[in-house]
Specification:
The protein has twelve helices and two strands; from the N terminus they run H-H-H-H-H-H-H-E-E-H-H-H-H-H. By secondary structure, the chain is mainly α. Strands 1-2 form a two-stranded antiparallel sheet. Helix 2 (about 25-45) packs antiparallel against helix 6 (about 115-140), helix 3 runs parallel beside helix 6 and helix 6 packs across helix 7. The longest helix is centred in the middle third of the chain and has 29 residues, at about 145-175.
Length: about 290
């Protein structure tokens, strides 16, 4: 418990620095680091033995974040300049090249590199980094940067509040197992408690934002965000269960050990990697409607 508390305090300190400098490349550095570590954790748990694939995948995962937004390097590099760089070649081209390189590596070392290794590595090097890149995409998708930052916290609250609320309510009132074969400790009562806790915290966050932000969130957007709290939080729970399934498949307790007492990056971010894309999808749809 002491180790968990110390780690949590250190993580909160780092988070405070990132939030303080969220409109600088500090966010890029933090996201690139988390993305690279998470990709490495998945490939390690899947027992991918091809060192070339693992190294290339981890590097690609980190560099992936550079293409999340034209503003990603501001104030070091202007958005207009970096936008021309990342727009010179369609992003899908880099993903196609990565896939081809991985398959060529499989052919070269076919004796111990399987199709499953390549499939897992592509997922770890593309899908997972995309999830992390949404931190940057949300920050920069609106002219009002404060609202973009609010959306990041909206996604995180949906993930973390649901997880915390479910754990507390499950300990207090849990009787009916939700998914006993996947995660025996999760209960139906805890799940409902987590969803309610997420709704309450998001309502509080929205109220505080409208009170202190320069521009308040329009009523139609605020209504949409509150209406989507429950489905977004539900997807966060599904992310947690999906991570549990992966760990059972890989026969590991935790994805990694980078955070003593808490496991790896994927252990901490599994729910968020589901709520972030949902939030991004909501924001994209809202930008077309409102």
């Amino acid at each position: 418990m002491k180790q968990r508390v110390i780690t949590a305090v250190c993580l909160l300190a780092v988070l405070a620095v990132v939030v303080w400098q969220i409109n600088t490349p500090v966010l890029l550095i933090a996201v690139a680091f988390l993305s690279a570590v998470a990709s490495g954790e998945i490939m390690k748990c899947a027992k991918v033995e091809n060192t070339f694939i693992k190294v290339v995948g981890i590097i690609f995962s980190a560099l992936f974040q550079l293409f999340a937004s034209a503003k990603v390097l501001e104030p070091w590099v202007s958005a207009s300049t970096w936008g021309k760089v990342i727009g010179a070649v369609p992003n899908i081209v880099y993903i196609i090249v990565l896939c081809l390189v991985f398959f060529l590596a499989m052919l070269k070392d076919y004796a111990y590199t399987t199709f499953e290794d390549v499939s897992v590595s592509i997922f770890a090097s593309v899908a997972v980094p995309f999830g992390f890149s949404i931190f940057i995409r949300l920050r920069d998708m609106y002219v009002d940067e404060q609202f973009g930052i609010y959306l990041i916290f909206y996604a995180l609250i949906c993930a973390l509040a649901t997880d915390t609320g479910a754990q507390l309510m499950g300990m207090a009132f849990g009787k009916h197992k939700m998914a006993p074969n996947i995660s025996p400790k999760k209960t139906v009562e805890g799940a409902f408690g987590g969803l309610i806790f997420s709704m309450v915290l998001n309502a509080v966050a929205l109220t505080l934002y409208n009170k202190f932000a320069v521009n308040v969130i329009p009523q139609n957007m605020a209504t949409l965000l509150l209406a989507m709290v429950l489905p977004t939080s539900f997807m966060g729970m599904m992310g947690d269960l999906s991570a549990s399934v992966l760990k059972r498949n890989f026969e590991v307790k935790d994805f990694g050990k980078i955070f003593p007492g808490h496991g790896g990056v994927m252990d901490r971010m599994d729910s968020s990697l589901f709520t972030l894309p949902v939030t991004y999808a909501i924001a994209l749809i809202a930008s077309k409607i409102f």
